Amino acid sequence: MFRWSPGADERWQEYAVEPGADTTVLDALVDVQRGQDPGLAFRYACRVGMCGSCGMVVNGRERWACRTRLSTLGRGRITVRPLYHFPVLRDLVVDMAPFTARMRAVGAAFAPSDGERRYARIGSGSGERQDIDAAIECIGCGLCVSACTMVAHNSRFPGPAALNRAFTLQRDSRDAAQSERWGVLLSDDALARCHGQGNCTDVCPMGLAPTRSIIRLRQMATARLLGVSRSGQRSVAF
Amino acid sequence: MDELDLDLLILGAGGAGLCAALHAADASPRLRIGVVVKGLLGRAGCTRMVQGGYNAVLTAPDSLEAHLLDTLKGGGFINDQELVWTLVTEAPGRLLELESRYGCLFDRAADGHIHQKPFAGQTHDRTVHKGDLTGIEIMNRLTEQVAARANVTAFEECRAVELALDPDGRCAGALVLDQRSGKFLVLRARATLLAMGGGPTMYRIFACSADKAADGIALAWRAGLALRDMEMIQFHPTGLVIPGSLMTGALLEEGLRGAGGQLKNGLDERFMARYDPSRMERSTRDLVARASFLEIQAGRGTPNGGVWIDVSHLGADVVERNFKGMVRRCRDFGRDLARGPVEVGPTAHFMMGGVVVDPTCHTGVEGLFAAGEDSGGVHGANRLGGNGVAESTVFGGIAGDVMADYVVGAPERRQDAGGLHQSVQDARAPLGRSGGDLYALQRRLRDVMWEHAGLVRDAGGLTAAQAAVEEIEQRLDTAAVPGGPALNLAWQDWLNVRSQLTAARLIIASAEARKESRGAHWRDDFPAAGREPLYSVRVRRRDDDLLIWREPVALTRARPATSEAAPEAVEIGD
User: Fold this and answer.
1) Domain B236-347 is in which class?
2) Alpha helices in A36-159 (DSSP H)
3) What is the pLDDT of residue B567?
4) Is residue A115 less than 8 Å (CB to CB) from chain B?
5) Where are the beta strands (DSSP E) in B430-519?
6) Dist CA B446 CA B434 (whole Å)
7) Is B445 helix (H, G, I), strand (E, B) or coil?
8) What is the average per-residue pLDDT within A54-71?
9) How far apart are CA B463 and CA B469, in angstroms?
């Protein structure tokens, strides 16, 4: 287990736990904190895979601690360290502020249009709806940001979660800030910088594919530039 | 101690807290608004965990009157009818606001209109949803909006430990503990909202977010507010049983039973035949939960102390297609819901009771408002599925509007931080102390509440529970909390247990005072519903003692049919 607190050197500390068949990484952490080392710091809230608070790197891979059973990790020693690319506050607890900042940087908040408030008619089978559905259920856990190599390389790169959210907004016919958002997305530091390694997609616990969202955004931008009218629709192949 | 002046202080950041923040922020960009959240902004609490959806009347033949009546029947008619009327009349507008202003995109039918699904206990298809993760959609969108408002400051991983009252008894803000630094600060405000979301985590098995500890209830109690119907705890019948894991209690959705899922005890009997032979597993939630509890108590449970739910006879492909999320939830723990039985059991889900409020979220303390699960009266003795997130967003928004108005011209509060020193000392007392095992105390509290103040209650059990709680309270004073103040989980858990104990005392006393069975409250020694007049159980602090009384229910909008004075139990989603 990775240990660090302000003023101290970072270190690795070993704990022995006797897991049952269903013991999760989070259960083991709670066990250690309650029984062996009360000073161990980690973060969780809902504990059932909905709040995105307990992301960490387990055996070299980003995972949600609450839904990862030790028995799925093979035998022997298990390493646990905090997410990459976030400032560590203590032990396994990271400061998630950069995640929020990245979201804000791409304008990841819906902008309502003026005029009468009513429910937009968007068919359940429409391309818009299906594109948004495939990308919308983000729990904000930050695993994708930790797994992204470009985030480490370029601090201005918004990262997969923010770009994924931007995609759902650019596909949302109700949103009124798409032009401004394109300005950010098409800057040197955003869409252009993704190398398509797919690490984000590999680790997403919700099965989302930020890589696909980024590709779709590039496709939409190109179609927009070329004046292709069916820019946002699924019928445009890639 | 650091002090900070705000105009509005919002304690809690679920659906209620964030809607309040947005409404106030948009009422005036000049207002300084602080939001205190126990975890990370947008990720703490239970709004996020909503699967089912949001009840709102959108089209005929559904009507506001029908929503009102469904809610009252579900609540055993002890709801505050003016609160319910506010809920049903405001819900359509709030839902539209969530969509058109904050950016939620709820599920549509093929023709593009909003899709509303049936939820049992409701006379029309009324429940708006986003797949089976409605709460994530709502909370993500609200959080983005809050983050985009310059006049809202989030105090993340902070928790309120005391309400600050000024010398005239008005609320002047709150004493807040920053869990990261371990430092206390006073957030002074002219209007304060209590929206910390209840949370029955004082039971052995619970479904709600594990960061909850009924802190808001404890704060309200210490500040002398009146609380109502604290005995009304909703138990959901199908929480996962995962031995030794925190995952225990996580919900498997009710649709499984609706689709034909069978419940069997450890002897492979479909035990619902003994409790409700006509409706079997499709019986009402409170009845199924209680029946499961009784089977388990009688020694007819599964090896891990639950019952079996089996949907495999529907066909694996059907189950995997229709219950994708549930199949995945089980599969992560090696259970195959599509191909065999899975162990489940009753799980504590929601507190119907809470602070007494009026339809504009005013409490009995000047300058203090309450909304969401911390408040009581909307749901009466039982909450309908889909009414929870409607309540929190409707009343949160109202509170934001009302508070923004209220602070105009209201004098700055002159609360002196000195008055809160005792509260700081009390909260810091255990820090660095060696002594008894804190977690053993919490386990004992949860066991006692489960056994004696849970699904089945009687006078003897409640007396025993009260004695146990008093004993645990005493031992909490000497429990060990090693380590320093910053990011100390044990210290936070000590504070959690303190709040849980306070709420437990109120639950037990109120359960003792309600000598009838109604809705979620079952008394083995009073198994029938009482005769009219209907009443609400009220409790408040008097010095260090507990003042408890009955308040008649004002039937301002609807009366139960004579036969309906009995608990009208209903099916409930989340």
Assistant:
1) alpha beta
2) 97-105, 127-135, 143-147, 149-153
3) 45
4) no
5) none
6) 23
7) helix
8) 97
9) 10
The second-level CATH assignment, the architecture, of A97-226 is Orthogonal Bundle (1.10)
Rounded distance, CA B419 to CA B424, Å?
10
Query: From the CB of residue B528, how many other CB atoms can be counted at a distance below 10 Å?
Result: 11
Q: Which of B96, B107, B180 sits opposite A117 (nearest CB)?
A: B96
Instruction: Tell me if chain A has a CB within 8 Å of the CB of B439.
Output: yes
Whole-number Å distance between alpha carbons of B494 and B90: 39
A residues 206-235 closer than 8 Å to B (CB): none
**Residue-level pLDDT at B131:** 86
Tokens at residue A126, please? Answer: 């429409």
pLDDT of A132: 97
B2-5/B183-188 β-pairing: parallel
pTM higher than the cut 0.80: yes
**Which class for B151: exposed (0-12), middle (13-18), buried (19 or more C-beta within 10 A)?**
middle
Which residues make Cβ contacts (< 8 Å) with residue B476, sequence separation at least 6? B430, B438, B441, B494, B497, B498, B501
Radius of gyration of chain B (CA): 23
Rounded Cα gap, residues B394 and B418, in angstroms: 36
What burial class does residue A9 get, using C-beta atoms within 10 Å of its C-beta: 0-12 exposed, 13-18 middle, 19+ buried?
A: exposed
Please state, for a pLDDT cut of 90, what percent of chain B lies above it.
Answer: 88
Alpha helices in B254-336 (DSSP H): 255-258, 272-275, 285-297, 316-322, 324-331
User: What is the predicted ipTM?
Assistant: 0.95
Closest alpha carbon within chain A to B244: A23
Place of tokens 């909008």: B557
For the domain made up of A2-94, the CATH class stated in words is alpha beta
Residues of chain A contacting B489 with CB distance shorter than 8 Å: 33, 38, 40-42
Instruction: Report how far Cα B455 is from the mean position of its chain's Cα atoms.
Output: 16
What are the sequence ranges of the domains in chain A? 2-94, 97-226
Task: Report angle CA B221, B227, B228 to the nearest 5 degrees.
Answer: 155
Nearest one of B217, B231, B275, B220 to B76, comparing CA atoms = B231
Strand partners, B457: B523
Q: Which two tokens stand for residue B241?
A: 């049983």
Beta bridge partners of A56: A63
Report the C-alpha gap between B532 and B521 in whole angstroms. Answer: 17
Structure tokens at B388: 């929870």
Of the candidates B147, B148, B245, which has its C-beta nearest A22's C-beta? B245
Three-state secondary structure along B376-418?
ECCCCCCCCCCHHHHHHHHHHHHHHHHHHHHHCCCCCCCCCHH
pLDDT over 60 (residue A56): yes
Residue range(s) in chain B whose domain bears CATH number 3.90.700.10: 236-347
Of B205, B53, B198, residue with least CA distance to B125: B53
Tally Cβ neighbours within 10 Å of residue A7: 5
Cβ B133–A123 below 8 Å, yes or no? no
B114 touches chain A (CB under 8 A): yes
B362: helix, strand or coil: strand
φ, ψ at A226 (rounded to 5°): -85, -5
What pLDDT does B286 receive? Answer: 85
Instruction: Let me know: does B569 contact B70? Beta carbons within 8 Å.
Output: no
Distance of CA B34 to the CA centre of its chain: 22
Q: Are A201 and A147 in contact (CB under 8 A)?
A: no
Q: How far apart are the first and last CA of chain B?
A: 41
The answer regarding whether domain B429-530 maps to CATH 3.30.499.10 reads no
Percentages of chain A per state (helix, strand, coil), in multiples of 5 = 40, 10, 55
Flag whether residue A103 sits within 8 Å of chain B, measured between CB atoms: yes
Give the residue numbers of B annotated as catalytic, written as ranges: 236, 257
Query: DSSP assignment, residue B44?
Result: S
The residues of chain B that CATH labels 1.20.58.100 are: 429-530
Q: Which residue of A has its CA nearest to B147?
A: A104
**Does B533 sit behind a cis peptide bond, omega within 30 degrees of 0 on the bond before it?**
yes
